[in-house]
Write a structure and sequence with these properties.
Elements lengths: L10 H6 L4 H4 L2 H14 L8 H9 L4 H11 L4 E4 L6 H6 L3 E4 L8 H5 L8 H11 L4 H5 L2 E5 L3 H10 L5 E4 L7 H22 L5 H25 L8 H10 L5 H20 L11 E6 L8 H7 L4 E6 L4 H4 L10 H12 L11 H14 L3 E7 L3 H17 L3 E6 L6 H16 L1
Parallel strand pairs: 1-2, 1-3, 3-4, 5-6, 5-7, 7-8
Helix pairs in contact: 4-13, 11-17, 12-14, 15-20
The structure holds iron/sulfur cluster (2 copies).
One iron/sulfur cluster (SF4) binds next to loops.
């Protein structure tokens, strides 16, 4: 185990960002301890994880300095909460796109001073980070781009706008031709808004370059996910989830390069028969709502109960990288249409009907070599919760072991979840 891992502090930087420094100063030590316990205690980790450990060490310092440098050069720095917001157009303008979804319990109480308690913890956590001034990313972005995916989010944006300029894109809830047209118009408006901050009109070449960059990131993650499907798994589910989370705040070209280097290492591991756990280890696929940093709760429970997670069907998972954008367009208009086409393939449960997702979950189950599915739903997320009914039916029809769980970020239900997960693993073992 690495002993000198330490999440770094920079109170001067945090002061400059207008953070609550006194409160935040305890965070690096807490994260150091949690990360050491959850990640560095794992056996047989690939050496290539060192880069991602470094990203965590620099999460509140080094990466923030890099993003500030982009901002100070007049380029847009935009916070988002959904994989529907097209990051290619931010990258094309020379800017930075940062995922701001909240995955921590520590900011929930701040949010509950204003928001109702009985809404999704992801929305509360993110909102709490802003009003508590305890997230350097929230303090760095020029503005945030919300969307109209679910009710909790779209109504929260109206309140968030009081603390930071919050633009909202209308995401259609169906996928008919007229809905696709609406979405294309929204994408065009988004481009105009981003270009306005950058003070330029992004060119065909810049968009083509950004499509190539983000396609490269998604392709690297596809490659990594395909490799981890091997049995024995060459990388743990926890490490894979961490990389999928870092994808939302790292510089995309550098990130892709390190993911590809890790893939090279995993190919060698596979050739040498090296895994993170024996080939007989029960293999579980997780589906459902996204797990934003630092939500490692379910993966940690599963992997400390004697199983390995082999796939995340989630927006912090395959839903983010399963589709690429066609890169042979010849006009800006066509680029935006092709981009829209790719984004309309995202099978979020906010859509109706959303049967493509059921097909996708079964497909990923088969490709990953999993032996059972745990469907994870954040508390009060009605769309994923209800869609679990159809997923359960599809799994029953195919004889796929299936368990649905609903949870939040608090540690209160860990014991109960552990018991249920252990029983599910016993069921898989047969
Ligand atoms: S689950 Fe839906 S709303 Fe949430 S990030 Fe994914 S696409 Fe967006
Ligand atoms: S998990 Fe569900 S309720 Fe929470 S933000 Fe995403 S779609 Fe909305």
């Amino acid at each position: 185990m690495s002993t000198n891992f330490q999440v770094k502090s920079d109170p001067e930087l945090w002061e400059k960002l207008g953070m609550d420094v006194a409160r935040f100063s305890g965070m690096p030590a807490m994260l150091t301890q949690a990360y050491t316990n959850i990640f560095l205690s794992q056996k047989n980790r690939p050496a290539g994880m060192a880069y991602f450990d470094g990203m965590v060490e620099n999460i509140h310092t080094g990466r923030i300095h890099e993003i500030l440098a982009v901002k100070e050069s007049g380029k847009p720095v935009i916070g988002t909460f959904c994989v529907y917001v097209p990051e290619e157009l931010i990258v094309a303008a020379g800017g930075v796109c940062v995922g701001l979804c909240g995955g921590a319990q520590g900011s929930i109480a701040d949010a509950e001073k204003i928001l109702p308690r009985n809404i999704c913890p992801m929305v509360k956590s993110a909102f709490g980070f802003k009003i508590g001034k305890i997230c350097p990313y929230f303090q760095t972005v020029d503005l945030v781009y919300g969307e109209t995916t679910c009710d909790a989010k779209k109504k929260t944006w109206e309140l968030l706008d009081r603390y930071i300029p919050t633009h909202v894109m209308e995401i259609p809830q169906m996928k008919r031709e007229r809905d696709k047209k609406l979405w294309l118009d929204e994408v065009k408006d988004f481009k105009v808004a981003v270009d306005k901050i950058a003070g330029i009109e992004t060119s065909f070449e810049a968009i083509a370059g950004a499509i190539k960059t983000i396609n490269g990131k998604r392709a690297a993650l596809q490659r990594l996910n395909t490799l981890r499907h091997h049995n024995p798994s060459p990388i743990s589910g926890k490490d894979m989830l961490l990389i999928e989370q870092i994808a939302f705040y790292d510089e995309p070209v550098r990130f892709s390069q390190h993911v590809n280097e890790l893939c090279d290492e995993l190919e060698t591991r596979i050739a040498d028969g090296i895994g993170v756990a024996p080939a007989s280890t029960p293999r579980i696929m997780v589906s459902g709502t996204p797990m934003a940093l630092p939500n490692w709760k379910l993966h940690n429970i599963i992997e400390t109960s004697g199983a390995v997670v082999v796939n995340e069907e989630s927006c912090i998972g395959t839903r983010y990288y399963k589709d690429l954008i066609y890169d042979g367009s010849t006009t800006v208009e066509e680029q935006l249409e092709r981009l829209t086409e790719r984004y309309m393939k995202i099978d979020c449960s906010c859509f109706t009907p959303n049967d493509d997702r059921i097909v996708q979950v079964v497909k990923e189950y088969e490709e990953s070599g999993a032996q059972g599915i745990i469907d994870y739903c954040l508390q009060f997320c009605h769309t994923y919760n209800i869609e679990a009914v159809k997923l359960r039916e599809a799994c029953q029809q195919r004889g796929i072991p299936f368990m649905a769980i609903e949870s939040d970020y608090s540690p209160d239900d860990v014991g109960q979840l552990q018991t249920r997960v252990e029983a599910f693993i016993e069921q898989i073992k047969g």
